[in-house]
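Hi U.,

Before I forget, here's the chain from the pilot set. I'm dumping it here mostly so it's searchable later in email.
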Amino acid sequence: MRNIFNILFIVSFSLLPGFLMFSCVELDENNEGAYSELKINLTAAASSGDLEDAVYVGGLQIDDFEIALSDLSVSYLSEAGINAGMDRMESFAFNDQNVKSDGSLKLVEDGKPRSNLLGKENTPNGLYQEVAFHLEKTSSANTSHSLKLEGIFEGKEVMLWTGNEDWLKAKATNTHAYTIYSNSVLTLVFEVEKLFENIEISSAKDGNNDGLIEIGPNNEDGNHTIFLAFEQNLQKALQLRK
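Structure:
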């Protein structure tokens, strides 16, 4: 007797937004409507394939990368819905008590990527496509930020930060959706190379000559163009892996 349901599927997305088509779907009716433990992690990667290397990009050594967030949720097609022939996406909100929102999570610490458990919940079995969260400001000695990176470029200290409080979404890579039918882990990954896409750190300057190259919304050092490019990269640098 099977104690989990098996999903054999091909997921294809048409060119029409929001339309989802499944073929070759087989579900275990005896386990319909079951739940499984789902953990959501958050980390950063130096490249698309490595979660272990020290984090360098364009000559910038990233020593610290932190983020504050709240309102974690997942979007999915449930087992029960698929079995009923439905293609309506559903949403599951994680308990905010499990999402650290009163301080920053370290994605990189002392130059090394760190993994953070954002939440752990029993969620409906199904096909999981997307994870979303809300950036949230937190205060430190120097800034009120939702995301901050600090590092070294050619011997000079660099700090890049934003107070952005937008929603960010991470979509499943490669397969467009992940099958969740047993205890599983999904990982949100900030790809640092994509965060700095079309950005030349060598052009950043210490405009006020205080020994720190600052790239932020206050434009204190005159690096506003770099700051705008960085903010535009936030969404595309985030992906969802299993």
